[in-house]
Amino acid sequence: MFKMHEKGKIVTLALLLALPASAYAAEPQATAPAAEQTAPAASGDSSTSTSTDKESTSSAAKSKASLTDSLKGGYTTAATKLMVPWSMQFAGDTVYITQRVGGIVQVKNGKQTLQKVQTKKPLRVVGEAGLTGFVLDPNFAKNKMAYIYHAYEEKGEGFNRIVKVKLTGNTWKEQSELLKGIPGGRIHEGGRLAIGPDGMLYSTAGETNRRELSQDLKSYGGKILRMTTAGKIPKDNPIKNSYVYAYGLRNSQGIAWTSDGKLYASDHGPSGAPIPGGGTDRTGLDEINLIKPGANYGWPEVMGKETAKGMTPPLYVASSKAIAPSGIAVTPNDTILVATLAGESLKEFDPKTKKMTDVLTGVGRVRDVAVHNGKIYVLTNNTSGGDGDPGSNDDRLLILK
């Protein structure tokens, strides 16, 4: 194990090892950053970072050793003072980061630029709702298109929608609406977007603390959704004439594929909150699931290691102490990196052994993780209202070394 101190905390690296149009408004408890910020691409806290990373990573990616085995300890800080960052995407060496409070931060050549997002429905920022999911179109280099998942309000009720946007200058402008009416609220919003190996657009959708939605096939809540990049229902979806790809989920915030085409998803377990109609949920029992077309993952009928006919059990269940898994990423060796919020760590899950181990701790809440060009990128999430304890430079984009 490798340990180092940062601001009195310990960073632990396990060496076993991206029309009226409206610009997004800021969340009440957060102050939006200036339109442009500057920071050296490889700068970081002097006690934990170095200014350059000269180590070649291509050999590590190609070797039989795990990507995390190549880590030597520490990280560089590629971006600072992000406001509730949620998702990241890569176009070459440029990183794009959504902020839940609004806007997309471009990190390019060591410079941070806050880019506006213009949508036909104003952004709703309440609790966990806001601008969350984000994925670039496979032809982004040519068409500058991407897809976002954002909250909005209609007749006093909260919803989420998926829209296609185009980058023009420093503004992302809505081009078309792919899907609307995804349940919204204050919590359990879901919102992760990803393009699958099949070229389809996948989205997670939370049950917004309305448990019954997860088993309701007429609702998008508590589901993984699948569509074409034009927003159409694929003919081979498991439920005819439905976007629903998998259901019985609570608040899934991470999806990724291993090299054999298997889809994995993280899901938040019960949080100790009051149950509508009486009683109190248990705590913890967060999950990693192997997602199969049309499968029912049980919430709220079963949870944790409980089983029932017709329901698919999780591959991994956390203890009664919540880790709150969010974004996930697959390594070249087909292990799964898991960003955890309550767990305040980056973890690594091995689908073969079903073991979960720590990779990085001591940086607070971790919202998202990505593997790009043989390096591991991490987004912290300490500016998220009362949930986090932000430092002077939070939130940050980190590159593990």
Automatic annotation (TrEMBL):
UniProt keyword list: Signal
Signal sequence region: 1-25
Residue ranges occupied by any Glucose/Sorbosone dehydrogenase domain in the UniProt entry: 84-385
Annotated spans, Disordered: 31-63
Pfam families documented for this protein: GSDH
SUPFAM superfamilies: Soluble quinoprotein glucose dehydrogenase (SSF50952), YWTD domain (SSF63825)
PANTHER family from the UniProt entry: HEDGEHOG-INTERACTING PROTEIN, HIPL1 PROTEIN
Protein's UniProt name: Glucose/Sorbosone dehydrogenase domain-containing protein
Species name: Paenibacillus bovis
